[in-house]
Amino acid sequence: MMYHMHDLMRSTLLPMHQWAKTSRMLASNPFNPLSYSYFGRTLEANLELIERQTANYEKPRFGLNYTEIDNEPVAILEEIVADKPYCQLLRFRRDADNLIQPKILMVAPLSGHFATLLRGTVKEFLPDHDVYITDWKNTRDVSLDSGPFHFDDYVKYIIDFMDFLGPETHCIAVCQPAVPVMVAAAVMSDISHPCQPKSITLMGGPIDVRKNPTEVNDYATNRDIEWFKSNVICKVPFRFEGRGQLVYPGFIQLAGFMSMNLDSHLSKHFKFFGDLIKGDGDGTEAHRKFYDEYLSVMDLPAHFYLETIEKVFLNFDLAVGSMHFEGQIIDLGSITKPAFFTIEGENDDITGKGQTKAALELCSGIPDNRKQHYEQPDVGHYGIFNGRRFREEIAPRIKSFITKYDT
Predict the structure, then answer these.
(1) Strands annotated E in 207-347
(2) Contact at 8 Å (CB) between 153 and 97?
(3) pLDDT tens-digit profile of 87-110?
(4) What is the pTM of this model?
């Protein structure tokens, strides 16, 4: 019922959104003399705020149309190379001849935002790597006929994609997928799969959330699984392709994201309002770009979400050695082939210090000289995979690590 009410409210606000958009365009028209006055700029700023607050933010585009290789522009073509009910494997194919460079499977989180949240991460690797990414689908758009999606299905998707890409692949997992990627690595090792990744990089992943728990961890651990089933799981309304699917809706997730830093979001919107009046084009465009991405959220499959809460945040299955896959216990000590690199941010308020590094201790079958850890000073969670410090300090280390183990 909650999802239906939210969808009805959004539909009801659509005329207001269209009115605000049209009125803003008229108010900012250069032929309108009021547009040059303080009153006109204030009116325009108010209308844009209404327009943005009543908008439905759909999946953004990656928009990575070109990169530079050897100081020459090279066109990029987004290519779907594998398609599954809940995810498509997207390749950023570069229009250049004779490129033999390391292949990367970038596993994007299935935790609310679209894979486009990693746009900056992908962009940084395009000049010198063949990049593929898990582009997860919005569950509201996945037909009920596709069946449910469980934690084990996530692991199988990773194994299938590794098998598709072949034995020369390196894997990078950002945040949430660190756990299923480790499970996939253990499963592939147990069966001596020929396409085990050459290296695995885990960035801000919740491997052992008992270490330095954050507010996000406390939110999960202070409730039992029945609370989550009763309070955050909804059915997709009739008008969507995935009608009847049980989901953890994006709008509930977004409310949680916003509430964690409400003061910060409010101050950013006040600043945006002031920048609109002052005509600060750079500031307003940066705000639009950030919130167009931040406010674009997807519904998660309910079974996967609940199982992740239970396995990762309530029972600590991976950390205590009780993780199962298809009924069989997972032994991380059996992983022997990939080199491991763990990365954390000093000020990460989502994945606490030591939670990702714990993977190195759990993978006892990997020699210490094939393990590496790095903590980036002065960055939070998103700074691990985006922004200036990622580009200048973290990405070069990952590239060097991949190069070392690409032979």
Answers:
(1) 234-235, 246-248, 300-301, 324-325, 328-329, 339-345
(2) no
(3) 999 999 999 877 889 999 999 999
(4) 0.91
